Amino acid sequence: MKKLAVNVDHVATLREARRTFYPDPVEAAVLAELAGAEGIVVHLREDRRHIKERDLKVLREVVKTCLNLEMAPVEEMVRIAREVRPDMATLVPERRQEITTEGGLDVIGYGEGLKGIISGLKEAGITVSIFVDPNPKQIEAAKAMGADAVEIHTGLYSEARTHERQQQELQKVMEAARQGKALGLSVRAGHGLNYWNVRPVALIPEIEELSIGHAIIARAVLVGMQQAVREMLELLR
Ligand code: PXP
User: Fold this and answer.
1) Residue pLDDT, tens place only, 7-51
2) Cα of 115 to ligand 1 centre, how many Å?
3) How far, in Å, is the centroid of ligand 1 from the Cα of 136?
4) How far is the CA of 11 from the centre of ligand 1 (A)?
């Protein structure tokens, strides 16, 4: 069975819609863990549009499973990560105007600078994952840069509007997972996964963990956080 890491960013999105102090992503994280999640994910963005440093620090105290910080590969975030020490950092590209992360990190495009960022995180005892498109060259580059893990971007699979297109994208994710595992990387996947499209991805043997946010938080609004997490875990079984 796959592990489920729940991204609680959108609990903070709801809080920030009124710039108040509720709902608290920390409380959502506790409920997600109680329902069986084995990881909690947050993205501390440069513009702090949802998750704040306070959330990250309190989560560090409270999360009992694996705290995974999604972060842009920039010095400010490396400093924060080294201070807070999440269990894992996932390097993601970031554009201010985007609604959500739009694709994998261009590991090749970043070049050697990324090695220093990765080693700075690893020195602090943080496991480093890179969010990558299912592209063999990017996965090879992630390994060469010293990453411990890759998270394969499932966004194109999730957004495919025809069965044929979805199958093509699924095939790419499967091949990427196989390649990542063969290179000795821990393989994860996520983005855009929901209660309707998750099963084919959950069946890919090389994938250890799925990172899912929006769909779970959206369902939690209606059925409660624990129920939403349990229903997702049922689909991963
Ligand atoms: N993985 C990464 C790297 C992400 O940036 C996100 C979105 O924050 C997710 C997974 C979760 O995506 P979703 O909210 O669509 O489930």
Assistant:
1) 999 999 999 999 999 999 999 999 999 999 999 999 999 999 999
2) 23
3) 21
4) 13
Q: Which atom of ligand 1 is nearest to the CA of 158?
A: 15
Contact 40, 51 (CB under 8 A): no
Look up residue 48 and give its DSSP letter. Answer: -
List the CATH number of the domain containing 51.
3.20.20.70
Which domain covers residue 202, as residue numbers? Answer: 3-236
Count of domains for the chain = 1
Under a CB-based contact definition with an 8 Å cutoff, are residues 148 and 165 in contact? no
* Separation between Cα atoms, residue 19 and residue 21, nearest integer Å: 7
Helix axes 225-236, 25-34, angle to 10 degrees: 50
Q: Is pTM, for the whole model, over 0.85?
A: yes
Single-letter amino acid code for the residue at 212: I
**Ligand 1 pocket residues where CB is under 6 Å:** 7, 9, 43, 70, 90, 92, 100-101, 131, 151, 190-193, 211-215
Query: And the tokens for 42?
Result: 């947050």
Q: Do 20 and 225 touch, CB atoms closer than 8 A?
A: no
Residues noted as catalytic: 43, 70, 191
